[in-house]
Amino acid sequence: MQTSSEDEKLILASVEQFLERDVVPHAMELEHNDTWPEEIVAKMSELGLFGSIIQTEYGGLGLSCSTYAKIVETVSRVWMSLSGIFNSHLIMSSCVQRYGTEEQKRKWLPKFASGEMRGGIALTEPNCGTDLQAIRTRATKDGDGYRINGTKTWISNGIYGHTFAVLTKTDPEADPRHRGITLFLVEKGDGFKHSRKLEKLGYKGIDSAELLFEDCYVPKENIIGGIEGQGFKQIMGGLELGRINVAARGVGVAQASLDEAVKYAQQRQTFGKPIAEHQAIQLNVADMVTRTEAARLLTYRAADSYDKGERCDMEAGMAKLFATEAALKNSMDSMRVHGGYGYSKEFPVERFYRDAPLLTIGEGTNELQRIIIARQLFARNPI
Question: Which residues are catalytic?
Fold first, then answer.
């Protein structure tokens, strides 16, 4: 999918207006109180953000990944948590759009696109994160359907979401392991509920929760693609989009940290002049802006590869790795520019500092990204 430059400008302008009007006045209070932003989520539905990359024939905006990445970056400059609310949802949607049957697409995607039915992906378990092939959640055949039993944790949208793409083991004896993994669409109801809300250092406002499955019955029609054993491949494809999203979030946080540092450095004076005129500050912000621009270019390159239908796990991995580390470093450097005020909740810098670490962990740790990058590099350059 491609988005025209004119359409992209209009969409980004609409997003910026929404952020200025509906988010900026409330983000600080909602974030500090860890409050689910119900009214803001409703506005995001009206804007069509929950259908950003869903094709127009299914009620979505049909945006390119490149435009979507710019939306995520723009949102994350104001309040990074909001981008997580529609990211997890869109990974689920992408799995249905790319791998689902036509019947599944027509049933689910219009509801996902409108925001009528929101949700996300349920992958991580108490004893399983990076190694998804080690999941223990079981889906056992029962008549014309399956019974799901297990626990998922750190699930974004876990409390206020309605539907989830749930990764399960349908054949625990399969060798290799990935052939025994199946992805189901599961609605909350009998046998499926959330338990506790998980408290976090940052990334507040969005609900992260445990999900419990106790003899949860799911019809076989809810297997994405209709065939057992394809779930691992499907979720890996979905995570390419997720990693580009997280990279774009990193760019947004890195840019916001830089913006605040540049502004404050021209306001704060020491020794009779703005600290922006001190060489130590200049060296700091020069590294910050270079880091941010490099992260942005890597992210846009990965998004372009995704739009072309190319395999982009290496490109998405490089973008995710660099951009999230840039966010982490810029948030710290911005806090140092601010001095004591950077440690105060009266300034947004402390929020960037709390939000950034998650980006280096979510959608596959940065240690995993390095392994993916190296393996793909060798695979593409055999001797």
Answer: 363
